[in-house]
Amino acid sequence: MNQQQELLNRITYKPQQCGGKPCIRCMRIRVTDILEMLALNVEVSEILADFPDLEAEDIQACLLLAA
């Protein structure tokens, strides 16, 4: 499995969770929320501090999905 696929495997979809929107590793942290914070110039370190269950690779996965 290549690195891109490994990152994208961090994104999960569950119809019963967050209205079926893509989330990170089955947590109730939506990809759109992370992307919005990045668009508002929130530093990755601040996002990781605010969401201690997140890993840097989760943020990379969000960006890859958006691309």
From TrEMBL:
UniProt-listed InterPro entries: DUF433, Homeodomain-like_sf, WH-like_DNA-bd_sf
Annotated signal sequence range: none
Superkingdom of the organism of origin: Bacteria
One protein family per Pfam: DUF433
PANTHER family, per database record: SSL5025 PROTEIN (PTHR34849), SSR2962 PROTEIN (PTHR34849:SF3)
Protein name: DUF433 domain-containing protein
UniProt source species: Crocosphaera watsonii WH 8501
